[in-house]
Amino acid sequence: MTSRTASCCCGQLRIEVQGETLGTGVCHCLACQQRTGSVFATIAAYAAPYKVTGTATEYVRTGDHGAKFRFRFCPVCGSNVFHTGEGEEGFVMVAVGAFADPDFPPPQDSVYECRRHAWVQLPEGIARYDKDPP
Length: 134
Prior knowledge:
mainly beta, 40% strand, 8-stranded mixed beta sheet
């Protein structure tokens, strides 16, 4: 089975996932822009089990539909590495940049297109949603 390891910039916080991604997407919502310090977040979902090593700082945010998301950051370098949805323990969402792999597969969907910066160009053929689909 294929495994991938994502880590923070300093290497203190790591997550190892198994198998292929369940999907990769980008989010242009303002919360993700502020959280990442970029104009969008790119995340890849993986099924459990997964293995976390190191210490994480957590931040819980409530999404538009009321779901709570628990984001994990490195307390040393501040890198965002992964997050989970409360009540959704069957999978984890990993920040694609934390894999440090320029050959990582492209996203299949894009959410919060209403907040996408006009100059951001995404691959053709991906599903696009004005907001977050329920």
